[in-house]
Each structure stands twice: as C-alpha cells, then as structure tokens.
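Archive transcription. Copying these from loose printouts into the bound notebook so they stop getting lost. Printout 1 of 2:
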Amino acid sequence: MSLKRKHGGAKEESRTLVARVHALEQNVLSSHQHLNDIVEIQDIAASDDGEAAFTAATALGRIYAALWAKGLLQRAKTDTADAAAQQVGDWLRDQYRKYTAQLRAQLAHSEAPVQVAALRLLLQMLDKEGAALGAFPSEGFQEVVAAVLGGARSSEHLLRALAESYVNSYDDLRLHFYRSVARLASPDYDPFAGRGRRHVRGEPVSPAFVQNAHVVLGQVRVREAGAALWVAQVASQNKSQGPSQSKSQGGAALSAAAHTRAFSEAWLAFLRLPLTPDIFKQVLLTIHKRVIPHMGDAKQLMDFLSSAYEAGGAVSLLALNGLFTLISEHNLNYPQFYEKLYALLDRNLFHVKYRARFFRLLEVFLASSHLPAYLIAAFAKRLARLALFAPPAGAVTAVAMVYNLLKQHPSCMVLIHRMPEYDAATGEEIVSSDDDPYDAAEPSPAKSCALQSSLWELETLQHHYYPNIATLARIFNEPFHKPQFQLEDFLDHTYATFFDSDTLRKPKKAPALATQPPAGLTRAGDALGDFMAF
C-alpha cells in the first residue's frame, strides 16, 4: 500500500507541475510583466519529471516563438534605443540561449523519442529565428548538427529524423547541412571563399562524429526541383538587405550550383577524416553511384581513390569502380591502372568476399578492342595459371573469362594454337623446365612475355578432378563458334551450389553395380572359420 501511495503522490505532483507550467505560460504570453516566469518554466524543463519537463520545454517553444515574432529577441539596430528595453532584450536572449542549450543536451538523452522531440523543437526555434532576422541562422543550425553528429548516444531514430524529416525535405536545411559538415570536419572551411583554399583540420573529430556523419550523408538525397524552404521568409525579407547579401543567404538555397558545391565540400571534408576500415569499405562500395555523379569536379576524388587502389587487398577491389568511373567518364589520366589491376590477380582473389564484384568489373575493363594484345594475353595467362590452384568455383569463372577474352580479342588466339617442338630423331615432344617463357613473377604485363607463351594450363584443366571443370575446359579443343559465356552464370558458384547441383541431378541411367552377396561372415577355409561355427 505504501508503494501505491508513493506512486500516486508522484503522479499528483507531476500533474501539479504541468498545471503550473500552463499557468505560467499564459502569464508570459498575456503580459510582458511576467517575463520572469520564464526562469521557473526553464527550471521545470530541467527537472527529472519527464512529463512536466516535456510540457515545459514545449511551452517555452511557444513562448520564444511569440517573442521572436514580436521582435523582443532581436538586437536593437541603433544605439539610441531605450536602455531598459536593451537590458530586457539581452536578458531574454540569454534565457533563449540557455533554452536551446537544454534542448541540445536532450539530444543525448537515453530515450530516442526524447531526442527526436528535442530536435523538432530546436529546428522550430531556428525557423522562428530565421523568419525574424530575415536570414538563415547558420550558426545555430551548425550547433544542432554538431550535437547530433558528435553525440555518442545519438540514436538511429534521431539520425533518420534529421535526414528524412528535415534535410531531405527542405533545400535550405540541405544546403546548410552540407556546409555544417564541411565546417565541422575542416574548421577552416569557408563556403564563400574561392578555389584553392586549404583544408587544415584542427582538433581531431570523435569516432562518433565519423560514424554518424557517414550514416546521415548516406541518407541525404541530392537536391530535387520544387523542394520547399524551412525558413520560408528569408527570401522575402532579404529585399531590405543589400543585393549581395540577399543572393548569398536566400538565393543560395535555390541555386543548384550552390548545392553542388556544398555537396562536394562536405564529402571531400568527410573523406579526409580518419575513417574506420568498415566505413572506408562502405564508402568505396557506393562512391561511384552516390558521390561521383553529383560532384562539381569529380577529379578531386582522385587522391582518395588512388590511395585506396594502391592499398592492396579487398580495399583495392572496392576502389576499382570509382577509379574506373573517373577514368572513363571524367578523363582521369591513370597510366598504371592496368598494371595495378594485373597485380590484384593472385591466389587470394578467389577467396575474398568481393570476388564476383571484381570479375564483373574485370570483364568491363578488358572489353575494349583498343587494348594491346600483350595486355590481354597477360591477363588470360594469369587467369589460366591461377585456375590450376583455385577452388572449383573460382576455376570455373577463370576458364569462362579466358574464353571470353579470346573471343573478344582474336589476336590472342595464338595462345591456344602454338605448336610444341618435336625431336627430329625420336619424334617425341621436347619438354624442358624453361619451356614456358611466361614470367609469372613479373609485375608488368608488358614484360611478362605472355604473348610468346601458350595456354597449356587449359589442357591441364581438362583433367581436373571435378568433371564439370574438365568438361568446360574442353571447349578450347573445339572451333570457336559458340557465343561468349554470360559471366553472371558462373560468379555465384560455391562448394554448396556445386554439391546441390550434383546431388539433385537425376542420373540418366542407373549406375552399373557388380556386387555378390556374402554367404556368411567368413569364407570357407579361413582360419577364423575353423574356430567358430554359426
């Protein structure tokens, strides 16, 4: 009974505080003589009573919205204003800053709905502030972005609300979000400076900022025509300002060029941060679709992608798409591209997670008829050599790839038509350890002597222990009248798919068995039979 009484008393106290907040709100809104009641409401908003604190925070939002609309929170434009009014204005602005600081602190609350509610109130305050000042409150918005992205306790709901409910829906929020990210990641960033400015990062950003910024940047969509403005009054009220100010503050939100520039600066600043290996790979996976097409100058990503391409391993495989997009669509000069691509072909390739992705890209990279024969021969020879040591799923892909290369580049057909030398006296084939001029250890395709070699590995694969590979390799013994293989049919094979296909395949005829049922446990004349009788 005591617990119920205690719980009922706490609930009654909460209702009393809620009623008190509503009464104080009415006093403040009805008369300026009760402005001091704002302090009591803010104290309730900072209390531990969840319901009363939420009611107080919402009431303060309505109060400050009314004060912005009446102009009481704006600074006096002249020094001749009433000293008492200036003092009241300074006090109100100080209370307003405390209120917004309280809301930013709520962005780190343990409960996601509280975080989202605090974000909504903060952006509503920015709307009223921008409407009163006639300019987007970029500093206040940057503080909100910093609190959301830099918070270690920022929930998935909070990040999604910022991206989907606000940034994606309003052009001015999207523009200033990109600028805020650029400023926070590169403190010397100036959105109105010209080209050639330096980005020297000051204090290192937190790991939480890197993680949250990546999440929100990935959810923010590019600008679409017809989007609304969050601070809708900026454009109309800027008419009283100078033309340059109006253009930079209000017009930029509607300018496609400004959005492209801000997008580019935000991503470039983000990519300079110390990314974790997982985020680094996730960025490389999507950079050719989500980032490069919307950059003002995509070549600015050259250093990032080149460094990733030269890192080796899975990172190099993931950087291929973005780097090739710069080469093919943006005229990037990368003369060592194919040499590094050739270096990626090693035994580990057939065991990595992104094997299928790599072979899809490799087929695109080697499809051009302008590539020299020695280059295609080097790749075909390397693939055939690796197929000898690859698992069945990798060997199948390599054989199909070699067949397609020879079909696309007939000048390399010499690799399967070169005849061996025979001893004139005995007529036997001459075989020596130095018979193959191909140098597998040579990193340069031009110096590997692949075009002077032959694809003898394919004949070896015709005796592979897995019959499907042996059958596939025998296609090189037939005239090249068949069309190219669809590489997609081979990329998703694994041991499991091979096992399923073999076990589920119905035999055309029953296998021949020659078994003789035993007549007993022992044969006649065995020593064991002399001692045991059944």
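Printout 2 of 2:
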Amino acid sequence: MTVPMLVDEHHEPKSESPLDENRNWPTHGTFEYTSYYHSRREIVSFKEFSAKSKEFDFVVIGAGPIGAALAYKLAKDWPKSQILVVEKNWAEPDRIVGELMQPGGCQAIEQLGLCNVFSDIGAVPVHGYYISYRGRQLHVPYMHDANGQLRGVSFHHGRLVMNLRAACKAQSNILCVEGSVTELVGQVDNGRFTTVRGVRVGPQRMQADGSDECVDVSSRKLTFVCDGITSQFRKQLNERPVELISHFCGLVLEHEPVTSDTYFDGPTGTTSHVSRPVDAKGNPLPMPHNGNVMLDGVGPVLLYQMSERETRVLADIPGPLLPSESNGQLRETLRTSLSRAAPKHLYPGLHAALMRSLDDSRRIRCIGSKFIPATANTIDGAVWIGDALNVRHPLTGGGMTVGLWDVVILTDLLRTHDAANPRQVQRVKAQWQWKRRPRALVVNVLSVALHALFAAETKELGLLREACFDYLAKGSYFTMQPSGFLSGLLPSPMLLVFHFFSVAFLAVYLRISDKSVAYSGGSLVYRVYSAFYTLYIAATVILPVIWRELQP
C-alpha cells in the first residue's frame, strides 16, 4: 500500500501510517499538478494584464472550487479556446465550511478528470455519518456500488482549492489573472441585463474613490459567474431576498492520529460500536473517518476531520441573529451547546477537547447559513453557476456536490452545441436546468428540512427529530436510502418526499401512542390533535422549500 503524503501548512509532505484509503478517489500519493500548488509564475497581475489581449472565448469569474473545476474542464474540452480566469486572491483560502465532499461530489470530480485531486493534501476518507441523540447512537454508512462501499473525503478547504487551481495553472490555454471583476459588460434594457458580452476588470484592491483604471474584456462565447456565496452579480439574475437560516460557529480540535481502524465502520442503524476515549490528546471522535453529528446541543453540532491531526467543529446557532461575542454571550451559548451535545459522562475525551478549543480560541469564526433557490437564466452570453446561482444550508455538506455536477452536466451539453450561438446556448441552459434539478432539489431541500428538524425550536419539530432518529435507526432501506440523499448518490425527489412523510407518520404514531420522549403527556384527544398538527408542521417544513426549488 502506498504511504500517504500529508501536507502541513507550508505544503511540505509528511509520512503517516496508512490505515484507510479511498479506492475510488485516493487520498494517498501525489497529485499530478502538485508542482503548480504554490507557483505564481502562471498568475498575471492586473498591471501586466492591462497590456495583453482583451478578447477571450470564455471568461470565468472566480477560482473557487466550482470556478477552477469549470475552467479546467473548459480547457480540456476546448483545447484551442482561450480562457480567462479572474480571481481576486490566488493565495490559499481559509474557510470553515466546504471541507467535506460527499461521494456524489467525488463522482462528479471523477467525471471532470480530477479523481486524484484529493491526493497530497492530507485528506481523510469518510465512511458515512455517526449520529447521537439523547444517549443513543446510530451509524449511517454511505451506499455501496458493485465494488463495495463508496466513501467521501474530508480535507482543508483551501488545500483542495489550491489543487484545483494548480490544475488550471498547468493548462496552456488558461490565463490566470489576479484582479477584481467590477462589472458585467453588455446590453441593458430597463435596468436589467439582456446580453452579457464581457466583464470590466480592475486591480486586486480597488480605491474607495473609484479612481482606478479598469479594462473591458470581451467574451466571444460565454461568461461564467462563479464568484461564490457572496456573489456581487447574483442580483443581476435573482433579486429575491436572501434567507438567513442560522449561523455555524467553527472551532478546530488538534489531536494525534488514530492508530486503529476499529471504529471507522459499524452496524447500519442503531449501534453501540463507538469510541469514547478519555484522553483528549488522541482522536476524540466517537467514529473517526465519519461525519459526527450530535443532536443535543442548542443546534446540531457537526464534527469531521480535516486531516489525521485536525478535526473541524461546526456548532449551529439557529435563527438569523447571532449572540454577541463582545459581551461573552456567544461563548456562553457555545459552551452550553457543546456541553449538551457531548456530555462529559458519555464522551469524556471529546468534551475535554471541545472545552479546551473553545477556551483557547481568541476569536470565534462564524458564517451565516443561507438558502437561495436557483433561478432560470435567460440572459444571453452568461451562465451563473455554483453558489452564485444556488445556496443551501451547509449542514449536509452537499454544496460542492451540486456545484460540481452542475459543471459536469453543463460542459457535457456545451460540447455538442455552438457556445457562440445565443439560441443554441439558451437551449443548453433549458436542458441544463432540467437535468440538474433532481439532484439539486434533493440536496437543497434535505439540507433545509433536516436543519429545521435537528434545530427543533418547537415541540412538534422536536417530535419530528425524534421520529427521524428512530427511522434511521431501523437499518435496511430506512437507513440506506436516506444515506443516498445525504451523499448525493440518490437524486430522486419523489423518494425523498416518501421518506420524509414516512418520518412524519412515525411521529404521529409516537405521539398518539405516548411513546415519544420529546413530546409526551396529555389526554388521548389532545395527543391525537397534536399528532396531526405535527403532520401539518412537517408539511410546512418541506413543501414550501420544494415549491421554491421548482420555480423557474
């Protein structure tokens, strides 16, 4: 077996003992474009760019995971085309989400010809999910194919992006520019774009008074807007208000690598096969090499490894308002949430590691969790893609899965059409919207619906959360088909609706029979009334989200 080459903050390889490997998408070995990882020879400054040609076949705004993957695929599919990628900062990004790739996203990476992109960055195979609730545990493994269980990958977000950018920098027909896209350039009618013909590019750091000289760049075929969740150009396509659902607060646990693969897998559904180390210096996770979800906090608490020595903690605080850090309310809320999610008597090592990380953190990093449904694109000459088009709650880790499959589907369609012909491109966009919808709908709806259940801000939602846990604990297809939704491997909206309402009817049974722990007591008449009111609440959780996803 190949010895993995793990990477420290300076990207210097280290050897670790290989206990686990992802047979489909290897995390060990060396990425073919590693030599371009830190290279800046291929990056052109705005000053240098202003003296170059201003006409390209394709223009890509943003070199995040979606923009970089898209540019690489365009370069491979159209080797004679000239592609411009404009990114404000080509240094390694540092984010607290986008650090876990579901198997469905890994399949898309393979379709793009980048299946080794997880090598040489210290990435860790992911076997599935461990979920804890009220002292009970269950394991939700990923689905199997003909060759065995599929696995996802977790990693440092910035390292994966740098590998994807390295693949771009290695292509001779891609020009990488460090600068800012200040405007879209094209035809405007009644204040709205009807046609995009290019972009206006300025220096990396713009002057506040707007005195910088910018240059116009024309795109002979298409401009791709991939500037992420904070996209400054989304409003040109989608003017709907952004819905802020909650905030994720991020911490990092540092620990020693695991020395045994004993707890990487367990029985499907209910399990007691979990690790409970006392020493916080060792890997403190109940199931290493899995996403660990703890449901007893203020909101759900998600833990996954970024490497063999580091684990990311994401503690959810429901609602659009975040407690203040300046007066200590944020830390107190997090301390309460983490203590409830990982109580000391059940998880002594994890509890100690969480409290130590919280106490040692000078600043709590937080990010808003949003929901932005996709909007049909009728603007000629441009395509919005990735988080610039469509955003979901990060709880289920499906964002890159949706974005990368969007790249796969779109580039496959463009290969058989004339990208310079607006009428053909409009047909491509219509087909793309239709083909992307099943997977995007399942991932997006599931993320918002599961967060509503797992955050459980009312008794009815608490009952649905308990029913969801009991449903997943049954094993068989009760566990494995929902696993397919989580992993992006089962893009079936009808099946998602079936399982969601199966959970809702299980909640009705638990309430009427008075077997629920989350919502108990009351006369039979009241229990029947509250049970069917819970069914109504379940419908209000999922149906409006589905409706918004189905809108053109």
